[in-house]
């Protein structure tokens, strides 16, 4: 079959342009990721007090029950989250790309919204709905006298994480499904395959690059995420342990940084594993007609079932946002299924300030997304299409950004760039550009995975054909590779953009004044007091709507492009 | 488009900074206080001192301390403003604060039994906070729970799985509460109480605000908090109540001038303003509700507002020995984490088994079972270190990396955790056996 033929060896020699690209990207990653993070994480290899180099901290890590337990808990939670996220994402992706399904675009956008979860407010909203005394449990207790522990222990973390991060799988899998060559499916159908067998044997394997890109992101992101376990007060996982130790007042405890190093190693190992799973397989397709897979129409009965499934999933995954919306209109919401009363005052309170937050957020997040797509696309191209020395290291370095706690990167930026001053004495670290760079570094892995998947589905024979016809390498990239990757690049941009828009942990260290602050910071300063809950939620709703509109816009662009290709045929 | 916006921003930023330069200037303050606290102060300060602008940078207390440490070479911050005295102590120890003598005089030297200001003049108390128990009225009513009044009430079976606390290693204010209990009841009895409460905990949050947030929304019934969290929630209409237990202390929330402040004069102006009657009166705003450090202000306080300078209950509060506390801060926090926070499930399991056995014993007494339950209780309250060991240089240096250490922090943590795991498992087994003897 087409997708098991191995890559023939080619292009052994590297071109000067490629070497320059590797050097430039390497320099960028070194200055803005490796050096800042290194200055902080270095502590992991030093003895406390004397500062002498040592590995004893790593021995201590493995000798401590708590850390071993945390390690296994983290692996378990990340693995189970991938399973549940797949179960949520698969029906949405298949129904919207394989069938004539009204509202596909809306579903794709709504299915993406869970990623846009502003810090703190989302957590509060989730507790109000699913917590021990949240809406659902209060009603269940009233009606049946039972409570379901949605939000407790490791299972609670898995529940929240799968709802939060399944869009990684949805967006990458959908892009992959759209890019599958229709002739593959037709060939299988001619040979008598249909229904679930066709999906299992042909369609799903062909969409593997996208699925693996999404699934590995979910795994690593859940493994490295500290916000959700901390919100649920689950502390025996690795990322929360690292965070708790890095951010305590007073003395520096090397163990926090040891855990960071372990997080980085595991994250890179997981990415390497997903690369191994893809090795020796060719997922590219040559034909670009018809805008991807054939769309089938659903019968009446099938439609009802399909809409039912989609409706239920959307209701579940959007529940945090529904809670957020209720909270933003609520006067007092305490130990009751619904708020006591509704009001508009919270929106009035944040109205004046929100414009500066929105402006900053849009600038920061779109610049960060742009940087990510450019660098992510370049790394993907270098890894998949060239044999330049060091290209895999770029991939791994960029991926390690996932595992570096935001606060570590923030401290690293201060340490590295605060001493560097502009001519008028302003420290470099206080410029808003540094916030953009920190966001770009933090979100680079997302865009990188998307670009990687997109490029894996473009057949090299198309590029060879172009080069045979006399096109230069640059021209081939511009006219052939980039247009064919558009979907994936946009997917990467959207993921980076929308998650950067609500990022807080690294930026909290770098924000110097309210006029430079993004909306996540605005939410943070409200959410520290009882009276600030409503206004904070209102800002959160504004953030979600703003980012969702931008996402909808880019989906609209993708759809139009697909249609344009389809009709041109 | 982006370029235009960016350019416009740069121009406006430049315009603003030149505007600032013309008068008293921009006073930059790093604070852990929420917008609800800082906004009224900013408005009132700028009105009272024309020409000055207050620029608020909001960071959590721990990131604020780290931040000041990282930027000290080229410091751009004038003031640090937060609750926890230990954060200020840590800053002072790193020489990151500047000495100052405020012009406002006549303020009391002590609130309750805690000195208001740093004896060396590096930071100043501007408001008092007492620690106590907050609860959600609707929650208690729905679960038929009585109102707690003392720390020891929280160790009672009826409150099992209803209590929330912030980890003392994360919340300087909770650390002081824990230390107050330990000083008030003594090391062994105090830890007995703390583990008794530990067995009833529903959650240990990693932020101070996590506790009032859980109680406000009704996720937890009872929380151990600083008073103003409860007062401001009440002012916001939440159905919550608050009580000061008899063993507690009032400690000041502080402000200090950062060493090498770019706007020293502005920083001094703000400290003086904050301690003046005008600044102090802002503390009584409904969204803030902190106890002013100036006794005169209580004349304007709302009905029922506590007065730490007059109310007899504050006078009887225990003397808080800051030196004792300082010597064992890391040990106490780590013990709490290793014996309670990270062992919550085993501890709760053992506690629940003891409650079940005691309930059965109350109906039918069996001497052998009674002994087993007592042994189980003793196993839970047993401590891996004594009070003297906790303050010993050997153990302290394990945390600081000093020369007298006999073990690394990670080794101590593992020892203490293993001690707790073993004891709690044995306690649970004994309690279960006791129950089977009675049935």
From TrEMBL, chain A:
GO CC field: plasma membrane
Top-level taxon of origin: Bacteria
InterPro entries: MetI-like (IPR000515), MetI-like_sf (IPR035906)
UniProt topology in membrane: Multi-pass membrane protein
Keyword match Cell inner membrane: yes
Keyword annotations: Cell inner membrane, Cell membrane, Membrane, Plasmid, Transmembrane, Transmembrane helix, Transport
GO biological process: transmembrane transport
Segments forming domain ABC transmembrane type-1: 71-270, 358-554
SUPFAM superfamilies: MetI-like
Transmembrane segments: 21-45, 75-95, 107-130, 150-173, 202-223, 255-278, 304-335, 362-384, 396-414, 426-444, 480-502, 537-558
Predominant subcellular localization, coarse grouping: membrane
Listed Gene3D superfamilies: MetI-like
Presence of the UniProt keyword Membrane in the record: yes
Record localization: Cell inner membrane; Cell membrane
Family designation: Belongs to the binding-protein-dependent transport system permease family.
Official protein name in the record: ABC transporter permease
Organism lineage: Bacteria, Pseudomonadati, Pseudomonadota, Alphaproteobacteria, Hyphomicrobiales
From TrEMBL, chain B:
UniProt cross-references to Pfam families, sorted A to Z: SBP_bac_6
Claim: Signal is one of the keywords in the record: yes
SUPFAM superfamilies, A to Z: Periplasmic binding protein-like II (SSF53850)
Superkingdom of origin organism: Bacteria
PANTHER family: SLL0237 PROTEIN, THIAMINE-BINDING PERIPLASMIC PROTEIN-RELATED
Signal peptide: 1-21
This protein's name: ABC-type Fe3+ transport system substrate-binding protein
Gene3D superfamilies on file: Periplasmic binding protein-like II
Keywords assigned: Signal
């Amino acid at each position: 079959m087409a997708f098991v033929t191995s890559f023939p060896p080619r292009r052994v020699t590297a071109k000067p342009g490629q070497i320059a690209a590797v050097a430039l990207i390497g320099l960028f990653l070194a200055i803005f990721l490796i050096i800042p993070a290194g200055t902080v994480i270095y502590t992991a290899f030093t003895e406390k007090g004397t500062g002498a180099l040592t590995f004893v901290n790593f021995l201590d890590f493995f000798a401590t029950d708590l850390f071993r337990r945390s390690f296994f808990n983290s692996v378990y939670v990340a693995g189970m989250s991938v399973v549940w996220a797949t179960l949520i994402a698969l029906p949405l992706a298949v129904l919207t790309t394989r069938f004539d399904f009204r509202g596909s675009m809306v579903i794709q956008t709504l299915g993406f919204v869970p990623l846009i979860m502003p810090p703190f407010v989302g957590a509060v909203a989730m507790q109000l709905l699913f917590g021990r005394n949240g809406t659902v449990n209060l009603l269940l207790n009233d009606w049946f006298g039972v409570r379901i522990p949605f939000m407790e222990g490791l299972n609670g973390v898995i529940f929240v994480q799968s709802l939060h991060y399944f869009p990684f799988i949805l967006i990458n899998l959908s892009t992959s499904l759209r890019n599958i060559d229709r002739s593959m499916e037709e060939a299988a159908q001619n040979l008598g395959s249909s229904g679930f067998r066709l999906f299992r044997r042909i369609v799903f394997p062909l969409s593997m690059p996208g699925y693996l890109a999404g699934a590995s992101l979910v795994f690593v992101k859940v493994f490295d995420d500290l916000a959700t376990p901390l919100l649920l007060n689950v502390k025996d996982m690795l990322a929360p342990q690292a965070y708790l130790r890095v951010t305590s007042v007073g003395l520096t405890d090397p163990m926090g940084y040891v855990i960071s190093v372990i997080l980085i190693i595991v994250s890179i190992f997981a990415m390497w594993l997903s690369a191994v799973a893809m090795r020796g397989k060719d997922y590219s397709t040559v034909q670009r007609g018809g805008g991807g897979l054939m769309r089938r129409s659903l019968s009446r009965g099938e439609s009802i079932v399909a809409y039912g499934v989609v409706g239920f999933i959307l209701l579940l995954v959007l529940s945090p946002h529904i809670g957020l919306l209720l909270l933003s209109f609520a006067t007092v919401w305490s130990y009751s299924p619904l708020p006591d009363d509704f009001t508009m005052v919270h929106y009035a309170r944040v109205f004046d300030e929100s414009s500066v937050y929105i402006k900053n957020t849009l600038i920061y997040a779109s610049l960060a997304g742009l940087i990510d797509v450019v660098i992510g696309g370049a790394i993907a191209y270098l890894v998949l299409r060239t044999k330049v020395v060091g290209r895999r290291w770029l991939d791994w370095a960029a991926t390690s950004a996932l595992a570096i706690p935001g606060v570590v990167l923030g401290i690293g930026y201060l340490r590295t760039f605060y001493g560097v001053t502009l001519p008028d004495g302003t420290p470099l670290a206080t410029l808003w550009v540094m916030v953009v760079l920190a966001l770009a570094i933090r979100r680079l892995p997302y865009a990188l995975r998307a670009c990687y998947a997109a490029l894996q589905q473009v057949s090299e024979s198309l590029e060879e054909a172009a080069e045979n016809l006399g096109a230069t390498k640059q021209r081939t990239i511009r006219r052939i590779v980039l247009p064919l990757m558009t979907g994936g690049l946009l997917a990467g941009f959207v993921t980076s953009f929308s998650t950067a828009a609500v990022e807080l942990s690294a930026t909290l260290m770098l924000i110097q004044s309210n006029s430079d602050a993004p909306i996540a910071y605005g939410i943070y300063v409200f959410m520290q007091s009882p009276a600030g809950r409503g206004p904070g939620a209102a800002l959160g709703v504004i953030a979600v709507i703003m980012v969702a509109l931008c996402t909808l816009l880019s989906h609209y662009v993708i759809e139009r492009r697909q249609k344009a290709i389809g009709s041109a045929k | 488009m982006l370029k235009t916006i960016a350019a416009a921003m740069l121009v406006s930023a430049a315009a603003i900074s030149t505007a600032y330069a013309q008068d008293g200037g921009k006073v930059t303050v790093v604070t852990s206080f929420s917008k609800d606290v800082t906004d009224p102060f900013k408005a009132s300060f700028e009105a009272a001192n024309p020409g000055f602008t207050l620029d608020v940078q909001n960071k959590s207390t721990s990131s604020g301390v780290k931040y000041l440490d990282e930027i000290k070479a080229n410091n751009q911050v004038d003031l640090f403003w937060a609750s926890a005295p230990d954060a200020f102590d840590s800053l002072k120890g790193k020489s990151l604060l500047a000495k100052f003598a405020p012009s406002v005089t006549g303020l009391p030297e002590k609130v309750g039994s805690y000195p208001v200001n740093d004896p060396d003049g590096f930071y100043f108390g501007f408001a008092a906070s007492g620690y106590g128990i907050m609860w959600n009225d609707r929650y208690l009513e729905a679960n038929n729970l009585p109102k707690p009044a003392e720390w020891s009430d929280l160790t009672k079976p009826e409150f099992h799985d209803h209590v929330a606390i912030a980890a003392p290693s994360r919340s300087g204010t909770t650390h002081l509460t824990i230390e107050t209990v330990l000083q008030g009841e003594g090391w062994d009895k105090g830890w007995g109480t703390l583990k008794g409460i530990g067995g009833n905990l529903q959650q240990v949050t990693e932020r101070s605000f996590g506790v009032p947030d859980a109680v406000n929304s009704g996720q937890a019934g009872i929380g151990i908090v600083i008073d103003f969290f409860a007062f401001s929630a009440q002012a916001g209409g939440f159905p919550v109540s608050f009580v000061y237990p008899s063993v507690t202390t009032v400690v000041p929330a502080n402000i200090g001038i950062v060493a090498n402040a770019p706007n020293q004069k502005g920083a001094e102006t703000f400290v003086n303003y904050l301690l003046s009657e005008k600044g102090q009166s802002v503390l009584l705003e409904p969204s803030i509700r902190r106890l002013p450090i100036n006794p005169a202000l209580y004349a304007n306080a709302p009905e029922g507002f506590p007065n730490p300078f007059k109310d007899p209950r504050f006078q009887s509060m225990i003397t808080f020995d800051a030196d004792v506390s300082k010597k064992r801060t890391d040990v106490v926090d780590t013990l709490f984490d290793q014996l309670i926070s990270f062992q919550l499930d085993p501890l709760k399991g053992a506690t629940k088994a003891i409650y079940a056995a005691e309930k059965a014993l109350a109906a039918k007494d069996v001497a052998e079972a009674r002994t087993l339950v007592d042994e189980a209780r003793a196993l839970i309250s047993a401590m891996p270190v004594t009070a003297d060991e906790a303050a010993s240089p050997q153990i302290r240096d394990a945390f600081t990396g000093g020369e007298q250490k006999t073990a690394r922090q990670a080794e101590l943590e593992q020892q203490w955790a293993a001690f707790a795991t073993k004891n709690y498992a044995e306690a649970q087994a004994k309690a279960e056996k006791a129950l089977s003897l009675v049935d």
